[in-house]
């Protein structure tokens, strides 16, 4: 249990104004952001951002272009160090940690633009994700000792198991860059999962997907949460995806949280309609 208490089904006075799904109420939250902020040369890209995500929650972060959504992901993953505030990952303070340290603490992400090793095979891309858990030493690897081969075999089996989530085992030996666009996006998610996260961040996972691919992605995101029992936070402009699968939604505008709540609450929130949803309908 973290130092911040949650009251079942109710808002709590703490700035995160946490409402987590009932099943997560007695669990340490996957993520707590407290007064989080960053400035770039006087511009407050993210200002006083407070958010709690339950241990197995699917959460959405939405808002207009330039609102600060990707900056939040960059803060959570330590690409940027915050100017203000605290980030707790599974109750652990991440202050001063590096990108790879917070990855080992349980946070993994995908990017808005695909960032695979396109000339490597699909399996090797997944193994890059598994790399942060390798247990053999560099010397064992260089000398190809039995312990190295044992871990290689385990890595192969784990990579195939992870690829099977998306029915991609048959593409294990294909070059990642040769896969169709939708499959490359799925591979990015598999690679992130290979690092064994407790919180998976997806930056616009449905971008560029057609409606049937998006529908399949939605099912897979829920399947991942159910299979691994992890929290998932996604940035997305596709409102059908957000409203269908996100249990808690946070809306950012000009770096500030303007609303938090369930899909129904967000869809009926006048401020959100004014700042984002209404404008999208006109577009
Ligand atoms: N490294 C940086 N240096 C200066 N300004 C930055 C930096 N990173 C982000 N910003 C600014 O912070 C603001 C938020 O940008 P961000 O990319 O987080 O928005 P976003 O909500 O993810 O937008 P989109 O939906 O278009 O991806 C923008 O004004 C952007 O120009």
From TrEMBL:
One of its GO terms (biological process) is D-alanine transmembrane transport. It holds the Pfam family BCA_ABC_TP_C. Transmembrane segments: none annotated. The keyword Transport applies. The keyword Transport applies. Keywords: ATP-binding, Nucleotide-binding, Transport. Gene3D superfamilies: P-loop containing nucleotide triphosphate hydrolases. GO terms for cellular component: plasma membrane. InterPro entries: AAA+_ATPase, ABC_AA/LPS_Transport, ABC_transporter-like_ATP-bd, BCA_ABC_TP_C, P-loop_NTPase. Residues 20-279 form the ABC transporter domain. This is ABC transporter ATP-binding protein. The lineage of its organism: Bacteria, Bacillati, Actinomycetota, Coriobacteriia, Coriobacteriales.
